[in-house]
Amino acid sequence: xxxxLVVEDDPVNALLFRMILEKRGGFRVSVTExxxxxxxxTRDRNTDLVIMDISLSHSRYRGVPVNGVDLCRLLxxxxxxxxxxxxxxxxxxxxxxxxxxxxxxxxxxxxxxxxIDHAAFVAQIRSHLxxxx
Length: 133
Fold this sequence. Notes:
Largest sheet: 5 strands, parallel
CATH class: Alpha Beta
Strand content: 15-25%
CATH architecture: 3-Layer(aba) Sandwich
């Protein structure tokens, strides 16, 4: 069973991601907002894909505040975690922001919140899991 790590600081969004991914996708899901946990769980190679909220308003790494873009850069810059697909998630992006966010972060894809089409979201996740296989 594929393991999805959801990095989200909003409990309602985290629950929604978990429900969609477990019930519609049949995935095993973990949720955290801790940068240390994200890095450790991704390095252990038991994480098949990361969904990363951009805001992460309470997250700190080595004493410094970090957001999802910063954390994605850390993952993509580390040879031990660079191959793990990362999908950025945000409710605050405008048209054209997706391309700049992907370029700035090194992420593999982008999803706008709220997730309206659950089937399309699961299909998007599955497409990245096939590419990573």
